[in-house]
Amino acid sequence: MSNLQQSLMHNNIKLLGDMLGKTIGEAKGKDMVDLIETIRRLSKASHSGDIEAHKSLVKTLQNLKDEEFLPVARSFNQFLNLTNTAEQYNSVSPHAQGAENPVNFPEIYKKLKDANLSDEAIIKAIENISVDLVLTAHPTEINRRSLINNLNQVDHCLALLDHDDLANYQKVQILRRLKQLIAQYWYTDEIRQKRPTPNEEAKWGYEVVENSLWKAVPAYIRELDEQIRNTIPYRLPVNARPIHFSSWMGGDRDGNPNVTAKITREVLLDSRKRAARLFLEDVEVLVKELSMATCTTEFRDYIKDYEVQEPYRESMKRLRTRLKNTVAYLDARIEGKNPERTDDILIHNEQLWEPLHECYKSLVACKMEIIADDKLLDTMRRVRCFGLTLTQLDIRQESTIHTEALSEITRYLGLGDYETWSEEDKQAFLIKELNSKRPLIPHNWEPSPQTKEVLDTCRVIAETPVGSIPTYVISMTRTPSDILAVYLLLKEADCPYTLPVTPLFETLNDLNNANGIMQQLFAINWYKGIIKNKQMIMIGYSDSAKDAGSLAAGWAQYHAQEALIKTCQDAGIALTLFHGRGGTVGRGGGPAKVALFSQPPGSLKDGLRVTEQGEMIRFKLGLPDLAIKTLSLYTDAILEANLLPPPAPKQEWRDLMDELSDISCNSYQSLVHRDPDFIPYFYQATPEAELARLPLGSRPAKRRPNGGVESLRAIPWIFGWTQNRLMLPAWLGAGEALQQVIDNGKMDTLKAMYKDWPFFGTRISMLEMVFAKADLRMSQYYDERLVEDNLQILGKKLRSQLESDMNTILRISQDEHLMESLPEVAENIAMRNIYTNPLNLLQVELLHRTRKDEEHSSELELALMITISGIAAGMRNTG
């Protein structure tokens, strides 16, 4: 980061901080502002190593009166969110970056040419770019939509101020608006009163599309196309679809009883209505702008009107009418009516694409390319990216739900209990029924509510136009029959098209068995015929890491992908790997480019599909400039990874990874799954129980209400350890394994792996980042105030291991200190810690008081929830 960039960010942070301070003073008085400033000053000194300042900070926060907790917590939470906004704007500010374009094809082209790649090979790779970003409702976004919109407006004001030629009155107006926004923020409740419904979650996802991606996608493709044209003799075809979006919001029913067939139907209709309205706005603009009279004979023939003076305008008016009819039709469907589907409404993307494409071809043929390549082409890019569904909606369900439904059916029919059959018998039954021409389920049968819900979901899929739902994802896939079962249930619902079914392999055992399962499936003639040589497979990052630790899980994920790539190549099947990553290292997170390069060679050959979730959607896609930067990073990384794939690891490296995986897995599981003190320590040392009361998302925190850590979802598991700054899921077992092989004389091999193997290098870099965010002193304070004396020895042991692991990592990376190669990231983490640390200390005090007094005030409960929100803002990637 340049000095100019750093200066801009610090100036913006100071500006926002001063405005927030004035707002707090007006609302709460000078004494409160003085208290907050004292806490901030002590935290800064404490962070710099002043032990006395740290003692004073702890004492000040312990002595707060009950009524002081809430305004202090709100102040530091809001300052962190405003700091994040300033940092976010700084990452895309043209002023700070010296007007550097976030899209930079010439740079990637030079790298590819330096590697002696031909233009033909580069063009072919460009044509094959396919990035499908799947927006999920995983509950890691703590901020309410109202506050997100407010922060987006703050970002907009910072952009307006980032000009040297502002008149004084303009600057005064912008600063007045900024102060208004910060006042709005202060007087708005940070925490929702109740959990969002799945419909509300979906609406939030659509708002990201409408307010950011709708503008960002055509702007990005236009800039990429122009740069490619100026570099090589090639341009992107008008029907190119390098980027598209899917969603799980309203379709992901795994462990979420609130997502029903009715909800999925409503979300699908709402998404289509929103898409029709957005395209209607686009077409209204085209009606105004396409006033040209000259057109080709073919276009006259197409519109069947040889007299009209403005043929393009006439065509767009007709399309406008059909879009209006489509909105009215969908409104009626949403209201529960059953209107007749006529030719005057749009059902399939081609119906929207065709008139636009015909206009485009005629304009280009009549030498009006400059007009064709503006708003018309932007709308065409949107049709290819978003279509009439806005985002495609995945359906996801857990495998045992389908098994239980089929068991109920077979018992009712007197065929026995499907669930108790051997895998061989299940497969034989499923294949026989899939080939049968008669229905299996009687029409007059009344199943149990759970089975009815499964069948109703399949009926919703059957009534939805082809292409709206791209796949049915089966979590916890354990056997080939888990996949065949879904095909049978869809057949029984009279689904008129073949919906691809995607197995999700997520636990350590499932990843290890994934290749064998797919080999069995590919050996079934019926299955090989139905998939038409295309297969999507989802790799889960969360459950395997919770199961075995991040190092062992990462190696199992790599192994599984390698094996699946080879199996699909041998079978002549195009494989799309779908990566279920989270925001954190413990859930497969990390910078996009780094994450993609750490995968096996060939894993991106047939496109990339990856989840974007929670707060990461906002940080990466929430504003048009951010989205353009993110899309550019993804497409650059895919181009480079496919044309300059990372090297396959040497056998010596594989053997060492096997050894590291075994040691780390054993170390992790011996504590998490086998130490009887671990679960009580986890619940006492982290705010996990309190997290469950935070109304983050529509989904319960546990798959089973009475289960232990094994039933706890990966997000609260990681969220809890992030809050107390121990960050345990990201590192437990890894450092111990690395140190053991170093003690066995393998340091030189580890250094070579770090330098020359992106998979391993990424793991070491991500551990450095996690360690930079960890805080041993803070974790110790949680233990001293919250954990029973007899359990504190476990926390002491973990902190000792963490300290040892930090030294181990630095020896491998040969750095003097953590994040040495990324000083600006380290500086930003340090800057945020000044405001995060008081929130941690506040949280401990609040947990201490509220756990001791179950009749505590609602104000203390709210302050506690706000500390959770603030620490999440400080840590950035929470779940």
UniProtKB/TrEMBL annotation:
The organism is Dysgonomonas termitidis
What domain of life does the UniProt record list for this protein's source? Bacteria
Is Lyase given among the entry's keywords?
Answer: yes
- What is an example of a Pfam family matching this protein? PEPcase
Function of the protein: Forms oxaloacetate, a four-carbon dicarboxylic acid source for the tricarboxylic acid cycle.
Self-association and partners: Homotetramer.
Q: Print the keywords alphabetically.
A: Carbon dioxide fixation, Lyase, Magnesium
Q: What is the lineage of its organism?
A: Bacteria, Pseudomonadati, Bacteroidota, Bacteroidia, Bacteroidales
Name it: Phosphoenolpyruvate carboxylase
Listed EC numbers:
4.1.1.31
Catalysed reactions, semicolon-separated = oxaloacetate + phosphate = phosphoenolpyruvate + hydrogencarbonate
Q: Which family does it belong to?
A: Belongs to the PEPCase type 1 family.
Q: Does the entry feature the keyword Transmembrane helix, yes or no? A: no
The record places the active site at 138, 546
Residue stretches spanning the membrane? none
A Gene Ontology molecular function term of the record: phosphoenolpyruvate carboxylase activity
Q: Which InterPro entries match?
A: PEP_COase (IPR021135), PEP_COase_bac/pln-type (IPR022805), PEP_COase_Lys_AS (IPR018129), PEPCASE_His_AS (IPR033129), Pyrv/PenolPyrv_kinase-like_dom (IPR015813)
